[in-house]
């Protein structure tokens, strides 16, 4: 049975018209004679959406009960039994009611697809797992219902339902999305223009990535290697030379000319791993690329132009940026160079050859380390000086040996010298051996004249073979040493990269690793003061430098205080103490220094983020406070003003009962206003740490009735069960009353009719526990902490429930008194708030200090 196809309508926010567009497609399919049924569609009370359900068959929903409340879900078995050609299933990221076959609706859809049924569905970008944290950062709201991106990426079709933020807000204001009582809160919070613009960009970028994947898949299936310029991608080739930064900035400017262009940097490393670029330069250039919004890549290859073009074609690059050759003019005569060769083979990819300061100056000659140690080279010279004469004496004592045998034995001697001392001792042995062979073993003897042409050829071959073998032995030794060095460097750099990623403070660990790797006494990272930057005479002053980080004994405080100094940039310098490093070691140290700069930048960004976090929280608090004041002070003020204005009016005569009712309305409104202002002031004092606490022993049997009286007639039905022998609690009487009023008021608000809250109390382990139990809808455990945030509620705020300070203030006051407030699930459904306070000491224990 072929698997069904999934079509998803993707939106940036609720209300853009995903469900409407999905139902329009369902109506078109049905009009063409396709068997279409509605598995589940949520209209959210929107008339235009509900009208689209006309003439479409709907599979009855399944009713389920959870915690005493009935819910309806898609009847998966009924849809499977009906077996339509197309099933319409709304809200793909929806979480099913506990007890359903699957936890998530997308799992239901997967079963429909496996059964060969095509599915049309909807999803908002905030439900995608990969961008969930970004959406939370933008909107301040964490989306609990998410689905894996792979589910949406695997869909055969994903259609973006787009709408400008201004148009969406107009739809909201006209009442086409939410009920009128939720419009103000939505427009002032989630549906702000900035939020909607950012969400729209997220949806567009996510869909663009999926389109890229589909394009790459199609090109791969069709075997298309040519570049399709659907999107600008600029690739810059890095050699690890000093010209790299110039090339990167030039490529970034090229990419900036096209909106949405990608910048990719690539370095082709030798596949044998022996001769490589400067790792410190590459590390700095990688940081620069990433700071400009690009990505860094490294590929292996022996043919650099071919490797570059393979990479560029693989990423569908449109432009390739290369540096002009550093080879001298004479060298370019014999070999065209990477740039010219790449340009000739680039095909449809545009190649930019960028000039730079090092162009045409030739490659800097690198010091080639000796393949063998000095001791082995001296031993080889000694062996050549003594071994060749000794071999001559030995061969003179042996009769009946032909010239061919003599040459072979001398060749073996030269190979032995090459194995011991390398190419130069072998060269001496080969030349000396050829003279000895000519003088003692080639007719006419004891003269350098060679009578026979065969003997001349034999001696010439001997010298050539001796030199060739010596060169091969020397190259093999050199390669072995380079390979060992490369392996050690690679291991060190791998450990370096891992060290930067691990730990909260990678910089000290990185410096300690550098110190241990090279056996140093101390390592310091110094930063030049800003006022001394660009002034060499000030940079020599000791107080111009600041030690950012250091490890080891007596770390240096100035660049002159160490044996090795590695500048990172104009202001950051790494100073090493203990011993001078070899030139080859310095390359690795420069890589360490570059990574140290990255680690320092990470630490400072983390510190700035930590500093900004409380400021951002305070800013959110102020914003919420202003919104709360403008929203929630309006009602009591309006009620009180209306009552007072009516009483002062001379146009209407009020009887005594009317006057009492108006006065009672004004008093209730002003009392509500006073409680609100008191809560706001107490929350401000709590956050500022200046709330005064006057703790004393107080019995809960006295405090609870006072709190219930404060709540008025609404609390008359609240049940209480407080033991007579309950110990007194240590608390501030006024603050305790405020805590109880807020907790009980919250329980009354959510208790169903006929099931009022209950208050019980007990003592345990030196604490007095008071439980406020309600039988309301309850709160999921993963959202318990959310209800204690100031100005927050589960769901949209309406116009009657206040600013959402009650539980946040109650927890703050309880903790200020040495207690705590924690939620628990009420057995059978509902929420229990547990207030714990320290028990007051008995008279035998004496007063607490």
UniProtKB/TrEMBL annotation:
InterPro entries in the record: HATPase_C_sf (IPR036890), HATPase_dom (IPR003594), His_kinase_dom (IPR005467), HisK_dim/P_dom (IPR003661), HisK_dim/P_sf (IPR036097), Histidine_kinase_KdpD (IPR052023), KdpD_sf (IPR038318), KdpD_TM (IPR025201)
Predominant location: membrane
All copies of domain Histidine kinase, residue ranges: 628-841
Membrane topology qualifier: Multi-pass membrane protein
UniProt catalytic activity: ATP + protein L-histidine = ADP + protein N-phospho-L-histidine
Keywords: ATP-binding, Kinase, Membrane, Nucleotide-binding, Phosphoprotein, Transferase, Transmembrane, Transmembrane helix, Two-component regulatory system
Sequence intervals crossing the membrane: 378-395, 407-436, 456-477
Listed GO CC annotations: cytoplasm; plasma membrane
Protein's UniProt name: histidine kinase
E.C. number: 2.7.13.3
Domain of life assignment: Bacteria
């Amino acid at each position: 049975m072929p698997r069904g196809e999934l079509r998803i309508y993707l939106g940036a926010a609720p209300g853009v018209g995903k469900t409407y567009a999905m139902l329009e497609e369902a109506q078109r399919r049905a009009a063409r004679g396709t068997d279409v049924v509605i598995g589940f569609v949520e209209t959210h009370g929107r008339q235009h959406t509900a009208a689209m359900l006309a003439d479409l068959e709907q599979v009855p929903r399944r009713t389920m009960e959870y915690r005493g409340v009935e819910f309806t879900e898609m009847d998966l078995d009924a849809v499977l039994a009906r077996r339509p050609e197309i099933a319409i299933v709304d809200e793909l990221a929806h979480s099913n009611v506990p007890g359903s076959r699957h936890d998530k609706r997308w799992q239901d859809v997967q079963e429909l697809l496996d059964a060969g049924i095509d599915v049309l569905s909807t999803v908002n970008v905030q439900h995608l797992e990969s961008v969930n944290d970004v959406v939370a950062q933008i909107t301040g709201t964490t989306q609990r219902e998410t689905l894996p991106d792979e589910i949406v990426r695997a869909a055969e079709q994903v259609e973006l339902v787009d709408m400008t933020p201004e148009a969406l807000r107009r739809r909201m204001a006209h009442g086409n999305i939410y009920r009128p009582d939720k419009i103000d809160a939505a427009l002032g919070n989630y549906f702000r223009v900035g939020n909607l613009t950012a969400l729209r960009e997220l949806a567009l970028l996510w869909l663009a990535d999926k389109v890229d994947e589909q394009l790459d898949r199609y090109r791969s299936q069709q075997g298309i290697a040519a570049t399709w310029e659907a999107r600008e991608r600029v690739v810059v080739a890095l050699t690890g030379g000093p010209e790299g930064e110039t090339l990167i900035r030039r490529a970034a400017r090229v990419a900036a000319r096209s909106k949405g262009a990608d910048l990719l940097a690539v370095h082709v490393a030798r596949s044998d791993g022996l001769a490589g670029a400067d790792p410190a330069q590459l590390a700095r250039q990688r940081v620069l690329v990433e700071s400009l919004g690009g990505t860094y890549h490294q590929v292996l290859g022996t043919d650099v132009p071919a490797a570059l073009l393979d990479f560029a074609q693989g990423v569908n690059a449109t432009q390739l940026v290369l540096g002009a050759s550093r080879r001298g003019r004479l060298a370019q005569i014999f070999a065209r160079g990477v740039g010219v060769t790449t340009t000739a083979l680039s095909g449809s990819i545009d190649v930019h050859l960028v000039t730079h300061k090092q162009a045409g100056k030739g490659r800097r000659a690198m010091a080639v380390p000796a393949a063998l140690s000095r001791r082995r080279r001296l031993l080889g010279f000694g062996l050549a000086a003594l071994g060749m004469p000794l071999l001559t004496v030995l061969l003179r004592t042996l009769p009946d040996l032909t010239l061919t045998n003599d040459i072979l034995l001398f060749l073996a001697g030269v190979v032995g010298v090459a194995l011991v001392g390398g190419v130069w001792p072998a060269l001496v042995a080969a030349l000396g051996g050829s003279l000895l062979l000519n003088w003692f073993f080639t007719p006419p003897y004891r003269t350098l004249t060679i009578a026979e042409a065969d003997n001349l050829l034999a001696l010439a071959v001997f010298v050539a073979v001796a030199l060739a073998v010596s060169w091969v032995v020397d190259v093999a030794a050199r390669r072995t040493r380079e390979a060992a060095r490369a392996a050690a460097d690679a291991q060190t750099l791998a450990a370096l990269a891992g060290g930067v990623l691990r730990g909260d403070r990678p910089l000290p660990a990185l410096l300690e690793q550098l110190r241990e790797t090279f056996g140093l006494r101390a390592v310091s990272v110094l930063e030049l003061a800003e006022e001394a930057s660009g002034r060499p005479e000030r940079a020599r002053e000791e107080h111009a430098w600041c030690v950012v980080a250091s490890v080891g004994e007596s770390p240096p405080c100035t660049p002159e205080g160490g044996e090795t100094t590695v500048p990172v940039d104009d202001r950051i310098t790494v100073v090493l103490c203990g011993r001078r490093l070899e030139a080859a070691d310095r390359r690795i140290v420069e890589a360490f220094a570059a990574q140290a700069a990255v680690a320092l930048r990470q630490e400072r960004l983390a510190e700035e983020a930590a500093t900004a976090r409380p400021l951002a929280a305070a800013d959110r608090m102020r914003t919420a406070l202003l919104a709360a004041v403008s929203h929630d002070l309006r009602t009591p003020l309006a009620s009180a003003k209306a009552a007072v204005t009516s009483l002062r009016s001379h146009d209407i005569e009020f009887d005594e009962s009317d006057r009492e009712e108006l006065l009672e309305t004004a008093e209730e409104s002003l009392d509500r206003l006073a409680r609100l202002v008191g809560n706001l002031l107490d929350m401000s004092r709590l956050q500022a740490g200046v709330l005064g606490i006057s703790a004393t022993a107080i019995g809960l049997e006295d405090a609870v009735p006072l709190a219930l009286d404060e709540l008025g007639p609404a609390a008359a039905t609240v049940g209480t069960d407080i033991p007579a022998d309950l110990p007194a609690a240590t608390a501030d009487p006024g603050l305790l009353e405020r805590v109880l009023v807020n907790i009980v008021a919250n329980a009354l608000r959510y208790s169903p009719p006929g099931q009022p809250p209950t208050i019980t109390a007990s003592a345990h382990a030196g604490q007095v526990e008071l439980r406020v139990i309600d039988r309301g809808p309850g709160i999921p455990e993963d959202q318990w902490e959310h209800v204690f945030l100031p100005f927050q509620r589960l769901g949209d705020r309406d116009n009657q429930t206040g600013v959402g300070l009650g539980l946040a203030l109650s927890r703050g006051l309880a903790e200020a008194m040495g207690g705590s407030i924690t939620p628990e699930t009420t057995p059978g459904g509902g929420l229990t708030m547990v207030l714990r306070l320290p028990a007051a000491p008995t008279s035998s224990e004496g007063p607490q200090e």
